[in-house]
Amino acid sequence: MFQSRLADSRKLLDFGLNNFEVHVIAFPRQIMGEIAVKNGKQKLLPIAVLEQVSVVIPVGREDDLELVVVNTKIPTAPVIEGTPVAQLDVQLDWEIIASVELVAATDMKRANIFVRLFRGIGGFFTSLFSGKIF
């Protein structure tokens, strides 16, 4: 009976080790993209992961992984480095297999009043001519 359990355990471990692999998605502090920031000195804020992100996937499926940045609301400046601003979902076959918080990679100061004023005026005329106001 002991030999039978040992053989079954060995088969199970061999199956797992031969058919699955650990794939590193991102390393600590790796920039994963940019998101828009309201009233910031720059319009885009780089976002990063704090810790290494790894997933266990079937062998040869790393090209099928999809990284989706979920941003529920646009942050308003000032934004301090390390502030959670979005979420990264790792998907395989439309199923979320990992989810991790994305944080601001740098500080973002608030733009001065003149920059905000001209951006507002520019946004008004852009939306006026694109038909989004009326």
List the keywords.
single chain; 134 residues; alpha+beta; Peptidoglycan synthesis regulatory factor (PBP3), Domain 2; five-stranded antiparallel beta sheet; two-stranded antiparallel sheet; 2 helices; 27% helix; 37% strand
CATH uppermost class: Mainly Beta
- The figure for the number of domains is 1
CATH architecture level-2 label: Sandwich
CATH fold label? Peptidoglycan synthesis regulatory factor (PBP3), Domain 2
In helices, the fraction of residues equals: 25-40%
Lateral arrangement of strands in the main beta sheet: 2-3-7-6-5
| Average of the residue pLDDT scores | 89
> What are the low-pLDDT stretches, counting only 5+ consecutive residues below 50?
none
Count helical runs.
2
Rounded to the nearest angstrom, the radius of gyration is 23 Å
| N- to C-terminal distance | 78 Å
**What portion of the residues fall into strands of 2 or more residues?**
35-45%
The tally of beta strands, per DSSP, is 7
Q: What's the shape? A: elongated
Biggest beta sheet attributes: 5 strands, antiparallel
SSE series:
HEEEEEEEH
